[in-house]
Amino acid sequence: MMRRLLEQDARLSSYFQLGERPGALRHPVRFLAVILAHSGDSWFWLPGLGLVWLLGDESWKHRAEVMAAGVAITAVMVFLIKFSVRRRRPEGTWGRIYRNADPHSFPSGHAARAVMLAVLAQFLGPNWLGVALLIWAPLVGLARMLLGVHYLSDILAGMALGLVMGLAVIQLF
Asked: DSSP 3-state assignment of 116?
């Protein structure tokens, strides 16, 4: 039963992948997907939140602290799950840095991080940030699947984990 579900997941996910198709390198959707996929990187968020903390007033410092803690805590949870499950990433060539640094795909850390940040923004405000991250978060996960570094189930599990982590971080802080 589980093998059949994983096979269906792989088939459905490969249907949507742009990364390995002929001519896809010049496709505008692929270009946007690359930008969105990288926008969820922790190496982008942590320095960015550090900059917000340095330059912001007290309310922005608080947001940056809570979000940075959320990024760190979520990364630990994703790491623990990935190394327990050990599901290999889909075959492909895009995202070599991800494939080499982390060969495991389940759950998507990018999807988890994006949804966790969106949840935090809903609670921390301001409203425009909450709306922007609510729109952005699912696009990050979709981009990761389109580029072939995750299966659909990786994205859905990452998003569910991000929701749980966002709510947990709100309770902690």
From this structure: helix
